[in-house]
Amino acid sequence: MLTIQSYKFKRFRYRFSREPLRLVSPTSVFQLSIAVILHNNEYACQIYTLFQAGYMKHWVNRSKSHIGDFIILLFDKVEGGNTLKPIVDDFAYQAILDNWDSTDLTKVTAYLNQLCDDQVAQVASPPSKMFFEFDNMNWQFTPYAALMLLTLRAQHGLENPDFEHPGFGNVTSLLLTQPVAPKKDEVLEQLVVKLHEQGFDEKALLA
After folding, report:
1. What is the Cα gyration radius of the chain?
2. Between vectors from CA 82 to CA 80 and to CA 85, what angle results, nearest 5°?
3. What is residue 170's three-state secondary structure?
4. Within the chain, where are the H helices?
5. Which pLDDT tens digits describe the chain residue by residue (207 residues)?
6. For residue 9, which of 75, 67, 57, 66 has the smallest C-alpha distance?
7. Vertex 111 angle, CA 110 and 115, to 5°
8. CB of 97 within 8 A of CB of 73?
């Protein structure tokens, strides 16, 4: 779906002579963190292309939370060539980006606490605070940003702290050590076959 969305928004500029501002849901960003956490690097790279093309052009309908920005910028920093910059003033997590590969576990623990504390605060905030990606219960109770940071560190051979948070329990224990294969959905598989028959090639589009 995000591949189709990425293609659609690239065409948008040619059709309407303007950027598709704020048309990408902020919750789409969590799909990138999920792909990383599941060690599905191919999907993560494919999903990242949407944000690589559109983050700095304001395609994402972002909230006042900086957690979604962090997820995009962390993947860019570690796996995407470090090509993106924060589009918000006083970005809350620049220090984490700069030191994501730190060997100082006390510092890493402080970063994880910051991410988890901020998520809890944003989940509990009233709607007027505009942390609206956390209005959806799907995203409230899993520390996606912290898990993504831990997963990327582990993938690059870095030691992680045994991190526990009062809102999420032992976060380090949630890390997966093996890739998780995506489950096949019959309807989606039939749709993809039809798309391929009509010339849609997601790998070529995302190359």
Report:
1. 18
2. 120
3. strand
4. 2-16, 28-37, 41-54, 67-79, 94-98, 105-124, 144-155, 186-197, 202-206
5. 777 777 788 788 778 888 888 888 899 999 999 999 999 998 899 899 989 999 999 999 988 999 999 999 999 999 999 999 999 999 999 999 999 999 999 999 999 999 999 999 999 999 889 998 998 888 999 999 999 999 999 999 999 999 999 999 999 999 998 888 778 899 989 998 998 999 888 777 776
6. 57
7. 115
8. yes
Distance CA 50, CA 46 (A): 8
Measure the CA–CA gap between 25 and 189, rounded to whole angstroms.
24
Amino acid at 107: K
What does the longest C-alpha to C-alpha distance in the chain come to?
54
Q: How many residues does the chain have?
A: 207
Long-range contacts of 177-186 (CB under 8 A, 24+ apart): 178/39, 179/38, 179/39, 179/40, 180/38, 180/39, 180/40, 182/38, 182/40, 182/43
On the CB side of 64, CA atoms within 13 Å amount to 12
Return phi, psi of residue 182, to 5°. Answer: -65, 140
User: 163 by DSSP, 3-state: which?
Assistant: coil
Look-up: residue for tokens 């003033």? 89
Cβ-based neighbour number of residue 151 at 10 Å: 19
Neighbours of 29 (CB within 10 A): 27
